[in-house]
Amino acid sequence: MFKARLIFGKNILKFFFTLAFLVPFSSVLGVNDSLRLINNLRLGVDMHYGTVLPHHASIEYALESNIGGLEITLTTDAYGRSHWDELYRYPRMGAGYLINSLGNRQVFGTANSLFLFIDFPLSTKQRKFLAGYQINFGISYIDKLYNVVENPFNLAISTGLNFYACFRMNAKYLIDQKNELSAGFGFSHFSNGKVVSPNLGINTGTFTLGYRYMISHPRYTKISEDKFFLHKKHFGEVIFSGGIKSDDQVTGKPYFISTLICDYNYFFSRKYAVGLGTDLFYDPTIGPNMVVQKGGDYSTRDLFQCGVHGALFAKYGRLYAIGNIGAYLYASYTKYARIYTRIGLRYEINRHILLNLSLKAHYAIADYVEWGVGYRL
User: Fold this and answer.
1) Better-scored residue on pLDDT, 365 or 231
2) Separation CA 191–CA 193 (nearest Å)
3) Are residues 186 and 241 in the same domain?
4) What is the domain range of residue 115?
5) pLDDT exceeds 70 at position 26
6) Cβ atoms within 10 Å, residue 83
7) 119-167 pLDDT, tens per residue?
8) pTM to 2 decimals?
9) How many domains are there within the chain?
10) How many Cα atoms are found within 13 Å in the side-chain-facing hemisphere of 27?
């Protein structure tokens, strides 16, 4: 158990610091060196208020109150660093810290999250009122864990270190050149990717009210590049991923799982693509769960699952955000559902080689984290 947690902690830290170089701050995405990295630096403070969204009866049973939180962010504008900034209407990006309660201090504790984020505006025009959407991705430390003796009601979180992700719709009102107010509504997820179980994860929905102050000299340089080469419209990808998954409700052991993904994707614009693909899953936790649920025995064949999925992609330089929804065509046993989802990131090392980091889930319940490498045809 301790070894699995240690491996998970090392992997998630590696990912977080790697991601810091992959987001559009990095010169690998086409930063124009004639411009400073920091552009219109803002300090922001947001108050959160909302609720845990119970996706399982055990979580609903343990909830005692609504949740609140405090968020502090540093933000810089993406004006003029690459043609991708122009395509995405010059987004804001930055880093932040969030501390928030989770509905029951004694059972679920408090979450302390460090994250990177990107805030996409819905319009390029400078107005008093601006609307957009924001994506946060980082790590979170939660101070109350599942313990069979001391905390048996916490079936949501069993490791201190967890993934944190958030999607938020927001609106901003510009008081003047340096001051602005903001409001929004967002959904967040906390989970360790089932490296250690139990791991139902925690989902929250919160309203936010905030204030931002520009601490640097205002600067609004924009570059519009005439030449922009469209990515090839049709391409295929083969990706092999591995990871660690445990299910201590049955065995208490960590298992190595793997996934083989074959995708066909079509870019219908410079930024977005759709696709179809197949998945071949190998999951040794299926066997013990199958025996407990159905009795009898299991064979090696029962540990494999095969499915098909539809895909959506959003491209920003060499970085891709991905979303899949799929269904099993072959599965001897499914613990939660025959429908599965996948969200994550892919990064192009070069024209053919890419890295993959994604989370496979069944509805709101995380299954496992996929760490992989792929080849683009």
Assistant:
1) 365
2) 5
3) no
4) 2-13+31-214
5) no
6) 18
7) 999 987 778 899 999 999 999 999 999 988 999 999 999 999 999 999 9
8) 0.81
9) 2
10) 6
